[in-house]
Amino acid sequence: MLLSAGDTSALPRRPSPFPPHPFATNDVNGVSSPVPPLSAVNKHKPWIETSYHGVITENMDTVLLDPPLVALDKDAPVPYAGEICAFKIYGQDAPFEAVVLNRTSGEGVLRASSPVDCESQKEYTFIIQAYDCGAGPGGADWKKSHKAVVHIQVNDVNEFSPVFREPLYKASLTEGKIYDSILQVEAWDQDCSPQYSQICNYEIVTAGTPFAIDRNGNIRNTERLSFEKQQSYQITVTAFDCGQKRAKKDAAVHIDVKPVCKPGWQGWNKRVDYEPGTGSRPLFPKMRLETCEGPLSGVKVLVELQTSHIGKGCDRETYSEKSLQKLCGAASGSTDLLPAPSPSANWTASLLSDSGRDNDLIYRFAGRQAANVPDHVVPQNLTDQFTVATWMKHGPSPGLRAEKETILCNSDKTEMNRHHYSLYVHNCRLVFLLRRDFIQVDAFRPAEFHWKLEQICDKEWHYYVINVEFPAVTLFVDGVTYEPYLVTDDWPIHTSKIDTQLTVGACWQGQFTQYFRGSLSGLTIRPGRIETQKVISCLQACKEGLDINSLETQSVLVVEGEDVDSVNTAMTKVSYINSRQFPTPGLRRLRITTSVQCFGEDSCLSIPDMKAVVMVLQPSEPRITITGSNRLVRPAGDLRAPLGVAPFKELHITSTIMKGDSFSGRECFPATVTPAGIMETMHNLDYCDVLVIGEELNPRKESLELRHSALLGKHLDATNSTSGISIYGVDSISHYEQALRQVRYRNWRPASLSERRFRLTCSELNGRYTSNEFNIEVSLLHQSAPVEHVNHMAANPQYMRPVHHPLMIHTFNSHMSGTSNASKCHETVSTATVVIVVCIAALVVIVVIGVYRIHATHQEETRDDDDEAKEPEEDWDNSALSITVNPMENLKGLQALSKVVKEGRTEEEEEDEEQVGGMSSAESDYSDDEVEEEDRMEVKERNREGKLEWDSSSMKY
């Protein structure tokens, strides 16, 4: 029962602590008591707190107040004046009443006078005052306290369940697509508090459905749906408020699956065959993107050519490092620290090499291999400008604490073990150390340059170039510039007389230490100057790649457009190109990734990735053939002459390839039957080696020489040793022929010569294609004593004056490959006819003018030498002739010729000093003071015989 203010009939009756008043009854609590005498006076007002806070649970009547409701009066314990008779509430329709529980102690209670509903009103605020009992039993002269504010909060009870706004929800989706939200269901709760009125969770009641719902009611599909598998789904959804009270009635959801076209690329082939030498090949000429007419705002396509399995990451030329530098226009003077093992470069013989990838020479270091570079190879003139370059593939270092891994190190050979300069990897950082010698200023200078790059430990090939312009050091990685993130200073190194040791793969400190783990290739140092950006880009350029609109080839292409049509047009122009004449055959994988943008959305269509392959077919391998005379017999005078003899004067180099179904390029060979499908091809060579068979050359009496002038105007260099001559550089077959024909063999003590044999081999693509081994033997012509009567029919053909015939053009030379096949065959037949006619005519003419030719020889020598240098290709090929004439004239003619030869030798000595490799006779270590007595006798004998011999070194043969 709820009580109103002043109504205390329902409260329990308690006995009064005071005696009954004789004159009045206490109306406050309805208990009659005697009225105290009128002499008592009510002096003080009751006192209560200034504010109260209360909490009541809806549908309950008890209010919990803080602080408790208590009124105090200073007139206590005087009856009536010191007692509290009532509490009064002031407020607009406040459904509460205050009841006095004990008049003496002033305790009271606040109760709800009518039902309280949180959903109707959550809070109440009103005023309360306390009243004492007055001066007497009649309540006369009562006093009231000050007004206090009471704030009551109504606690909610979770009495309502969630209710869905719609009993049935419908939606549809397109098959094969993942949606973030198909539709949203919504429920609400009538409770007043946030705890019970909010919906905290939704749940799909139907089990085994490919759908999920989040706490906001968004329903999505968890897998790509297929119209053929199921056309519609019926699911039931329920809701929970935050008091975990479930909805009394669940909602039904109906989802339809609509069949549509499948977006993706159409009209493409998984394999595209590429025939070498065909230039740019379109990969997707008929490909188009199907988007099912969606409202697209942009399309982005990424086309990636994956070639990490080939050599150093793509199909590059496999010429030597020096040859590539020449092709790219780099300045000369670089030193290759990791050359292919050879007699002159034997320090790499102990290293592990991997040349299985198209002869792309790679050295693998497993933490145990290193090599000392010989002192004569190490560049000694490093200035403030130099370049260090290398190909490197490196992965993360093993172990928790990675050690330094030295790529290149120049340190003291003994004692101090100081590092003068080095390049090493440490914790996936590339560090270049450069300690300069102390000169004048004893102060800190930049010494260590650090770069932190992902490429250093990604297990992929990258091309690193360090350009030093002290004190600045710049790093290029795959042609991109990187400045050091850290540069540390150090004291310069004081100069000392201790020799240094340059090592590769580790650092020398009395023993190898700080081993490198990874792969290296093409490690070079170029002293005196830095490399240009253009050359660096050329050296690491890829010969294969993707091309569009004849732009620069690259391994990754990005095609972007606002509409599908423009993207489709661009994709039909994407091509594969491999500019190598003999590319590495095999697969090249393609990956195409497509993203589609819609208006207002990040992505609206899911385009599956496309994978394809480019099959580079096996190129028609060239067959390099060296032909010419295999035997050269010359008199002692020719061998002793300043120019010596030319063993390879009649040399010819041809390169042919097999074309199984092509006869347009058929050549005419010396054989009567021409192999079907053979055609001559024009390409470059990169080296030709002339090796001495048997004992090496004795520099005191013989040399193999090549004048520098023979290399002018060509991309060729040469090295010379007692083992032979090596001509190298990427250049045409024609230029190699011209250079080899001017190689001279000289022997200034031929009496002891029985025979000297040489072997010639040539190479293309750093040994990928090699020629046959062409052997030639040089021997001495032993002459009989001179007689007065000369048989002119016994003369050797090499002493004949060359006959220049306009029809005698060699059909197998590479620079003549453009001649038609019919004309070539006709020329060969004409050549044979002319040879027979010339043979008969020569026999008759020589008999008549033999004596005249001997006296005219000297007059022709100078002109013939000039002709040989200017037009080496126009010499008559007399290899098919066999004409013998007695070379001996009368004794007077020989003596006159000997005198002329002696005079001519002094004029040719200056020319003789211009030789390759320092092997000319003027620079040889031969000396009369060093030879033995037997050698002196041989020299004297040679001087006596010189009067009876002529010098035919300048004659054509």
UniProtKB/TrEMBL annotation:
Domain Cadherin: 48-164, 165-284
An example Gene Ontology CC term for this record: dendrite
Transmembrane feature ranges: 829-852
Primary location class: other
Cellular localization per UniProt: Cell projection, Dendrite; Endoplasmic reticulum membrane; Golgi apparatus membrane; Postsynaptic cell membrane
Membrane topology type: Single-pass type I membrane protein
Swiss-Prot/TrEMBL keywords: Calcium, Cell adhesion, Cell membrane, Cell projection, Endoplasmic reticulum, Glycoprotein, Golgi apparatus, Membrane, Postsynaptic cell membrane, Repeat, Signal, Synapse, Transmembrane, Transmembrane helix
Gene3D superfamilies per record: 2.60.120.200, Cadherins
Bias-annotated ranges (Acidic residues): 906-915, 925-936
The name this protein goes by in its record: Calsyntenin-2
Organism field: Takifugu rubripes (Japanese pufferfish)
Lineage, broadest ranks: Eukaryota, Metazoa, Chordata, Craniata, Vertebrata
Chain's gene name: clstn2a
